[in-house]
Design goal:
This is Class I SAM-dependent methyltransferase. The chain has helices spanning about 5-15, 30-35, 50-65, 95-105, 105-110, 125-135, 175-185, 190-210, 215-240, and strands at about 20-25, 40-50, 70-75, 90-95, 115-120, 135-145, 150-155. By secondary structure, the protein is an alpha/beta fold. α3 links the parallel β2 (about 40-50) and β3.
Length: about 240
């Protein structure tokens, strides 16, 4: 049986059992193999834009005798999928802005899916905002630590449409739900708490460093960092009851 990293195991486990999954940016196809082995998907279309990973993925799939259930395709984003061909799409290990671009260009494929499992490496707030703007339902969010790094996983249900006001953060404050994940805040997620505490301490160091610099750029950066720290401290106090 294929062994996955903690991050990719969580990604795979978030997929609801279905007929077909599109594993976009499949790398070595470990997630694709796992989904079929565990019968979470009857078939998988595993695609990547790079020749190297495609070649390795093909060898891995053949070694596991799964070529009849996992199809390898080379191409850019969701261009490799025909609308209606898959029930779920996995996008993991890429920047948030690239992820948004892939979803936007492949909207016809997305809207024929039931579920998206997303693991953006950056710009997570922008990804959350994009999903809500499109009316998709951010059903759940998980946060985990793997090899010392923090990761966010988003479970998106395409046809459980949500109105913008349903993602309202007024019970918390301002845009906290977009910034840190409404589901994580409502669950008082311990990993998010750990990340917030770590980020609070990091901003303290940045403030001390920037305070001694008399440049315009340093002044602007200092203002931004102080604002971030103020927000983090407010979240820690209101959500987790942590002062300081």
């Amino acid at each position: 049986m294929i062994e996955l990293s903690k991050r990719m195991q969580s990604v795979a486990d978030m997929i609801q059992p279905c007929d077909a999954v599109g594993d976009i940016g499949c790398d070595h196809a470990f997630v694709s193999i796992y989904l079929v082995e565990q019968r979470r998907a009857k078939r998988v279309i595993a695609s990547d834009v790079r020749r190297g990973p495609i070649a390795i993925a093909k060898r891995n799939i053949e070694a596991m005798n799964l070529s009849d259930q996992i199809e390898i395709r080379m191409g850019d984003g969701l261009d490799t999928i025909v609308p209606g061909e898959v029930n779920a799409v996995v996008l993991a290990g890429m920047g948030g802005m690239l992820m948004i671009d892939i979803l936007e260009r492949g909207e016809e494929v997305v809207t024929r899916c039931d579920q998206l499992v997303l693991q953006p490496q950056s710009d997570i707030e922008k990804v959350r905002r994009y999903l809500v703007e499109k009316g998709y339902h951010l059903a759940d969010e998980q946060m985990l630590i793997d090899a010392g790094k923090y990761y966010n996983l988003l479970d998106v249900r395409v046809h459980e449409m949500v109105q913008k006001d349903e993602y309202d953060c007024s019970k918390l404050a301002d845009d906290w739900c977009y910034m840190y994940g409404g589901s994580l805040l409502r669950k008082k997620d311990p990993v998010l708490r750990s990340w917030l505490v770590k980020r609070r301490d990091t901003t303290t160091g940045l403030i001390n460093s920037l305070s001694g610099k008399n440049t315009e750029n340093a002044a602007k950066r200092l203002k931004t960092v102080k604002a971030e720290q103020k927000t983090i401290c407010a979240v820690l106090k209101q959500v987790y009851g942590i002062d300081g």
